[in-house]
Automatic annotation (TrEMBL):
GO terms for molecular function: ATP binding; protein serine/threonine kinase activity. SUPFAM superfamilies: Protein kinase-like (PK-like) (SSF56112). It comes from Solanum stoloniferum. Residues 50-323 form the Protein kinase domain. GO terms for cellular component: membrane. InterPro entries: Kinase-like_dom_sf, LRR_Rcpt-Like_S/T_Kinase, Prot_kinase_dom, Ser-Thr/Tyr_kinase_cat_dom, Ser/Thr_kinase_AS. Keywords: ATP-binding, Glycoprotein, Kinase, Membrane, Nucleotide-binding, Phosphoprotein, Receptor, Repeat, Serine/threonine-protein kinase, Signal, Transferase, Transmembrane, Transmembrane helix. The keyword Nucleotide-binding applies. This is Protein kinase domain-containing protein. It is a single-pass type I membrane protein. Its main location: membrane. Gene3D superfamilies: Phosphorylase Kinase, domain 1, Transferase(Phosphotransferase) domain 1. It is found in: Membrane. It holds the Pfam family PK_Tyr_Ser-Thr.
Amino acid sequence: ANAMIRIYLSQENTKFCNSSLLIFWTALNGVELQMVCFTLKQIKTATKNFDASNKIGEGGFGPVYKGQLLDGTLVAVKQLSSQSKQGNREFLNEISTISCLQHPNLVKLHGCCIEADQLLLVYEYLDNNSLASVLFENSRLNLDWPTRFRICLGIARGLAFLHEESSLKIVHRDIKATNVLLDGQLNPKISDFGLARLTEDEKTHISTRVAGTIGYMAPEYALWGYLTDKADVYSFGVVLLETVSGKNNNNYMPSHTSICLLDWACHLHLSGSIEELIDQRLGSDINKQEVEKIVKVALLCTSATPSLRPIMSEVVSMLEGRIAIPDEIPEASTYSNDLRFKAMKDFHQERQNQKLIQTQTQNTITIRTDMGSSSASTTNMFD
């Protein structure tokens, strides 16, 4: 079937239908789009010609700018590379998926711009940046426990919609705290569907282009490219632990025996010391039963075996108290833990190697500089 395109054009936009748009129409098959098409002039006006002061982030395929439309609407403009084939795929994926999706816990796509060499996506602007910036940086915001629990539940609902309720059945592939944005009321909204892939015809496949973030990727996906919605479930489990602890899974190494936050949480659970995981900024104003619930669900979600992970609708029901959480979390074997943390161990080893090389390089430069200074001094002595 030919693509059915509904693009609402302003008077200024009527000049927009060019060859790039026709190519774009041809590229989308069987997807009905309902969105605004902006001109490049409109986007440049909104972002003050992509002024550096309006840059609010850097995604996997390019920068993100804050902008204001003529009617006062604040937007976030994602600028993709038109030179990259991967960027073009990203653009088509985002257009064909996000435009069809409407959910309170998903970032809304207002429209797009395809003009000259520009590929642009125009999203709703969210006031409070990402969950990562609030949890891991010196943020003006302080998330109390009820807010954190509500954020966890909201992310779960958004993923359940993507996996099970949406007709498109989308696997996000890069769920992490950076890709969870917060609105003015601190409601969570999942962003960045550039890595999402439609799975209408098959529920599992081997991906030849693994895309994600180390520390959040499920082992079967990181090691073998085996992708199902259970990969998102695993990533979600990591985000739950980060929300409870206020610590970044990738940058937190509590001891030589734990490679990351998830590893440490597993040890704490086995030793019955899960309270050590709780963010100290929360103080005593917490619901210990809810904390225990979140941690148990997180450990279920991050099982090394995909079949042992719950689906996201079950996670929502567990968090809402509609179904019981298993008393016993499946204990991971040494082999399973090796699989879960292999990518992280390799990542840390690579980072250590890079630091060692940098140190050696700096030492070499220092020695050469000192030798140069000594030579100069010696020359001066005999002048």
